[in-house]
Amino acid sequence: MKTPGPDHPITLTPAPTRWRARFAGHVIADTTDALILQEASYPAVVYFPRADVAMDYMSRTDRSTHCPYKGDAAYYTVLMDGQFADNAVWTYEDPFPAMTGIAGRLAFYPDKVEVYEVADAVTGEAADAPAASVDEVVQHTDSGSGASQQAPWAPTVDDGGVR
User: pLDDT tens for residues 22-42?
Assistant: First the structure.
């Protein structure tokens, strides 16, 4: 076990914005509680809380790797709509003491799963209209499978009148 230091720095920073992961056209992770891990000169990695990831589309694999700074990583394959990404997700379930912040979190390989910051918002014509992100609107739209990714929005009519 090695400890991060000046020769191999590792920082964990709470993300100031919302982050999502998309696979096969579907949002499979959505969080306002992401952590950004920056390790030495490697690209930054976004870690999502497990509770904010659609684990129904993940299956644990036999793959495991070891990092002398973080510990042992376990892997998941993503399967959705007949498409799969083998070992596209990793997690450190019991990381070394210096990295306990990533326990219970998952990260995605960006060449297999699209990971992106949500910064674009669509606003309504009226000044008091609530803003909705493009992805939020997409999640409430039928993808062709007969079901939306999120529960339907409340109806815009009530007792025959328009709200």
Answer: 999 999 999 999 999 999 999
CA angle 7, 67, 62 (to 5 degrees): 165
Per the DSSP assignment, residues forming a β-bridge with 84 are: 79
Statement: residue 128 has pLDDT above 50: no
* 3-state SS, residue 137: helix
Distant-in-sequence, close-in-space partners of 148: CB < 8 Å, separation ≥ 6 = 139, 140, 141, 142
Give the CA dihedral 30, 35, 116, 61, nearest 10 degrees: -70
The tokens of 97 are what? 């003491």
Separation of alpha carbons 104 and 51, rounded Å:
9
What are the DSSP E strand ranges found in 92-139? 105-108, 114-118, 121-122, 132-133
**What single string gives the DSSP state of each residue in 19-78?**
EEEEETTEEEEEES--EEEEETTSPPEEEEEGGGB-GGGEEEEEEEEEETTTEEEEEEEE
pLDDT, position 160: 56
